[in-house]
Design a protein that fits this description.
It is built from 15 helices and 5 strands. By secondary structure, it is α/β, with parallel strands linked by helices. It has 3 domains: 152 residues, Rossmann fold (3-Layer(aba) Sandwich); 58 residues, Helicase, Ruva Protein, domain 3, CATH 1.10.8.60; 87 residues, Zinc Finger, Delta Prime, domain 3 (Up-down Bundle). The longest helix is centred in the last third of the chain and has 16 residues. Bound molecules: adenosine-5'-triphosphate and magnesium ion. The site of adenosine-5'-triphosphate (ATP) has 20 residues, from helix 1, helix 3 and helix 9.
Length: 317
């Protein structure tokens, strides 16, 4: 079995639009659109990672092209270093002969289209026009504002949103049941918190945690290792409210029990402080920088980080 085949994200990737979780407006419109595929425009999918863009694109090709899906679908990655020249060559070859009695058109899925320079996008626009009789494009972009207007205006645009807590947890429960792993509510909630609505990330954490045993909070935390910004946020909050001992305890737990490195801890606390827009932002950032330096030159990290938390606690006084 290949590594990918063993991965739950692939095993449980929906093959039909009706199986897609969340994104109900998008799925509804697309199902209506493909009832009469000859009318289907080019499509553009935008949105953050792991929310179903590629999955939906593949479902559509399967539903329109049926048994011919493999032969009449071309998947390209626009950020390929060979660039627009490669795209042009491949699209040209792919769209060359019409001989397609049983399908309305061929489909080209172009992922990471927003990584193309605007010159390349202008060239892409020509390619889309030149092949319009034979091909439909599904363009995928994380950031739609990086796509030039002439391309946007030629596509029906669908903005994918991150997946709600209810739907992430529902999907995880379904998978856990099929895989016969025990779950509890807190464990699933913890996975959702780490995933921030990225279902791919959530399923990967579920699988990694299952290899330790039941899906409970402790196992999830142990698995999620470094994606622990929210815990670092708690350390900061405790320090800022003057609870130095508790703050230090939590910091040591993160480092000793969950294996977070001191430098990662500093990186996370730096970003948490920055995002907090604290009124003494500059002062706190300087404190962090000071201890970062001390640890770098070889001082004992545990002692230094404890002192740092004590000093941060003083900021509020
Ligand atoms: N809406 C969804 N319904 C069901 N499963 C989903 C959904 N979104 C993501 N998944 C799961 O996550 C995996 C990755 O999803 P997908 O490849 O569609 O993400 P994406 O939006 O294209 O992300 P990226 O921007 O990183 O390419 C799928 O194989 C599937 O297991
Ligand atoms: Mg994708």
């Amino acid at each position: 079995m290949s590594v990918e085949a063993g991965m739950w994200v692939e095993k449980y990737r929906p093959t039909k639009l009706s199986e897609v979780v969340n994104q109900t407006d998008i799925v509804g419109s697309l199902e209506a659109l493909i009832k009469d595929p000859t009318e289907m425009p080019h499509l553009m999918f935008s949105g953050s990672a792991g929310v179903g863009k590629t999955t939906v694109a593949l479902c559509i090709t399967r539903q329109i092209l049926g048994e011919y899906a493999n032969d009449y679908t071309l998947e390209l990655n626009a950020s390929d270093e060979r660039g627009i020249g490669m795209v042009r060559e491949k699209v040209k070859k792919f769209s060359r002969f019409a001989g397609m009695a049983d399908v309305p058109f061929k489909i080209i899925i172009l992922d990471e289209a927003d990584e193309m320079t605007s010159d390349a996008q202008t060239a892409l626009r020509r390619i889309i026009e030149d092949t319009a009789k034979i091909c439909r494009f599904i363009l995928i972009a994380n950031n739609i504002s990086k796509i030039i207007d002439p391309i946007q205006s030629r596509c029906a645009i669908f903005k994918f949103t991150s997946i709600s807590e209810e739907d992430v947890i529902g999907r995880l429960e379904e998978i856990a049941k099929k895989e016969k792993v025990k779950v509890d509510k807190k464990g699933l909630k913890a996975i959702y918190d780490y995933s921030e609505g990225d279902l791919r990330h959530a399923i990967n954490i579920l699988q990694a945690t299952a290899s330790l045993g039941a899906i409970n909070e402790t196992n999830v935390k142990a698995t999620s290792g470094l994606s622990k910004t929210s815990d670092v946020g708690d350390v900061l909050k405790l320090a800022l409210s003057g609870k130095v001992a508790e703050s230090r305890e939590k910091m040591i737990e993160l480092i000793k029990v969950y294996g977070m490195s001191e430098s990662d801890f500093l990186k996370y606390i730096n970003s948490v402080v920055f995002k907090s827009k604290h009124s003494n932002l500059a002062e706190i950032l300087e404190i962090i920088a000071k201890y970062d330096y001390r640890i770098l030159v070889g001082a004992n990290p545990e002692i230094q980080l404890s002192a740092m938390l004590a000093e941060i606690a003083n900021v509020e006084k």
